[in-house]
Amino acid sequence: MAAMLEINGITVRYGAIEALHNVSMSVDEGDVVALIGANGAGKSTLLKAIVNQVSLQEGSISFKGEVVSTAEKHKKSVPTHLLSQRGIALVPEGRHVFADMTVEENLDMGAFLVKDPVAVAKKKEEMYDFFPILGARRKQKTRSLSGGEQQMMAIARALMSSPHLILLDEPGLGLAPLVVQDIFNKIHLINQQDKVTVFLVEQNARMALKASNKGYCLENGNIVLADSSDALLRNDKVRAAYLGE
Ligand SMILES: Nc1ncnc2c1ncn2[C@@H]1O[C@H](COP(=O)(O)OP(=O)(O)OP(=O)(O)O)[C@@H](O)[C@H]1O
Ligand SMILES: [Mg+2]
After folding, report:
1. Does residue 36 have its Cβ closer than 6 Å to ligand 1?
2. Cys staple from 37: which of 41, 45, 94, 138, with CB 3.0 to 4.6 Å?
3. Average pLDDT by consecutive 10-residue portion of the chain (245 residues)?
4. What is the number of the ligand closest to the CA of 92?
5. CB 213: neighbour CB atoms within 10 A?
6. pTM for this structure?
7. Which residue, among 148, 48, 149, has the nearest Cα to 90 in the 3D structure?
């Protein structure tokens, strides 16, 4: 069976800067896959490439067996909002919540492509059950939420479109360890209960590898290691470079 997400030899440049070089990787349906790497390694660029927020200079990306992005100029890549309809949702780095909107309005934004208001209302109730803190704060402006609550809301907003694949860019960034643990527990449930495939980018390599079944290590735009997460946790190079052991 083909992988759900397939990245084939992609290169991405910002002017003279090559952020990704000939990167290939795959995510199977049902997996939690982690991508670890230092600041500036190209992690966010890879997620942006998947949702076509940056263009490819080389290579191609397929989702559910269909090419959704390619470097070839004559082939049009699928725009971000249509990728969302096909089942990919991105929770961007730094969360990008709408601070002046309430929690409820933010969730509505996540469902802007869902035309059935009954379905949207039902989905929101599901989110409030899954993240009770959001239910309690539904009428509150998002800027008044804590960092962890805002991250939960960003995840809930992405889930409003009922994605098959969720891309998470550093969900633990800037949060206290207990809050990070909370968020990773939710990610585990999203994968196990809701059967959403997860692709997770993190600088917190230990958390990411413990939460995943497969991992990739990105250095200066190059994939330097690919293995099961268990093997990466035991890998001497990973332990020295990413786990501080
Ligand atoms: N819009 C842009 N224009 C020019 N250079 C960029 C742009 N976005 C990213 N870069 C550069 O591309 C490289 C990869 O950046 P990227 O944001 O993908 O890294 P990252 O691994 O997500 O880093 P971090 O852990 O800090 O979020 C860096 O050298 C960065 O400076
Ligand atoms: Mg980043």
Report:
1. no
2. 41
3. 92 96 98 96 96 94 94 77 91 88 95 90 97 96 94 96 97 93 96 96 93 97 97 95 86
4. 2
5. 16
6. 0.95
7. 48
